[in-house]
Amino acid sequence: MPNIKSAKKRMRSNAKKAEINTIVTSSMRTAIKKFEKEVKAGNKEEASNLFNIATQRIDKAMSSGLVHQNKAARLKSRLSKMKNAME
């Protein structure tokens, strides 16, 4: 446990950031899974809506540094291939 005031504040801020990071990452994964589920079901309209949401969540995770730029591009590429294969 830190004794210095700035170290205590750093612990609090790190905890808040960690919580936000887990929320952003898990929402990204959830959006991807929902999209994949709709693709398997064959719902084109719902899949295209979820594709847009998933790409937004991936971009947000990338911009905050939670996902590397190359991984984000790879994920979006895979999702777009799935979407295009439906049509």
Write structural notes for this entry:
The chain has 87 residues and is mainly alpha-helical. It has one domain: Ribosomal protein S20 (Methane Monooxygenase Hydroxylase, Chain G, domain 1), CATH 1.20.58. Helix content is 86%, strand content 0%. The longest helix is centred in the first third of the chain and has 37 residues, at 5-41. The protein is elongated. The N and C termini lie far apart (57 Å).
Give the helix/strand layout.
Layout (H helix, E strand, L loop, with lengths): L4 H37 L2 H20 L5 H18 L1
Helix pairs in contact: 1-2, 1-3, 2-3
The percentage of residues in β strands lies in: under 5%
The portion of residues assigned to helices is over 70%
Question: SS-based structural class?
Answer: mainly alpha
**Poorly predicted spans:** none
- Assembly annotation: single chain
